[in-house]
Amino acid sequence: MLLPTSYFPNIEYFTYLLRHQEIQICLNEIFPKQTFRNRCVILNANGLQSLSIPVERELGHETRTCDIRISYAEDWRKIHLRSIESAYRRTPYYEYYISALESILLKNHVRLVDLNFELLEFLADKVGLSCRLHVSDTAEKISREMNELVNTKTQSAFKGKAYLQTFTERYGFQNNLSILDLLFNEGPNSICILEEGKF
């Protein structure tokens, strides 16, 4: 299966990883704006929060995903880590995963795809997935369905199994957040929740 890169992907994305043994992350596409390739959504005390990595496009709108560079002009990593801590420090499994995640984020990755891939490998392992992940510079295009998976402007029909979230009493269950939400709240049980997701 060929998937676009994604930053702390949503639960639907991980459900695809669960259901396929071989996953290729596409590097050869033209990088589109405003997608989950460089952003994710978490849930904090104020509701949904979008975290975005600032990027640089050397060739403007014609820049391929593999050539997208991370911008460090602002300290986005500090903002993201503080936001994640604020949202999840009281969850049952936060302390089990945050140090390793922080170590990955604080590396000075040059390319977005390298950061995303390292995070994806770590998260897939912690969730308990057995799929094999590869990067691919194939000329094959990502399917429309898979592009919709990381489109911030489309409402997915995916329905994840409900689990207890930190702010459930305030906001009710929030579907299809970043995998961080599931992992910090459910830990090793995350894979059982993924198994019950419905497209």
What does this 3D model show about the protein?
- With about 200 residues, this protein is of the alpha/beta class.
- The two termini are about 15 Å apart.
- The protein has one domain.
- Helix 3 (about 95-105) runs antiparallel to helix 4 (about 110-125).
- Helix 1 links the parallel strand 1 (about 1-5) and strand 2.
- The longest helix is centred in the middle third of the chain and has 16 residues, at about 110-125.
- It has helices at about 10-20, 75-90, 95-105, 110-125, 145-150, 170, 180-185, 190-195, and strands at about 1-5, 20-25, 40-45, 45-50, 55, 70, 130-135.
- It is built from 8 helices and 7 strands.
Number of separate strands: 7
- Decide which structural class fits the backbone: alpha/beta
Main sheet overview? 3 strands, parallel
Per the principal axes of the C-alpha atoms, what is the gross shape? Answer: globular
Number of helices: 8
Give the C-alpha Rg: 16 Å
Element pattern in H and E? EHEEEEEHHHEHHHH
How far apart are the termini? Answer: 16 Å
Provide the spatial order of strands within the biggest beta sheet: 1-2-7
Domain tally: 1
- Unreliable stretches, pLDDT < 50, 5 or more residues? none
Percent of sequence in beta strands = 5-15%
Residue-averaged pLDDT, rounded?
96
Helical percentage: 25-40%
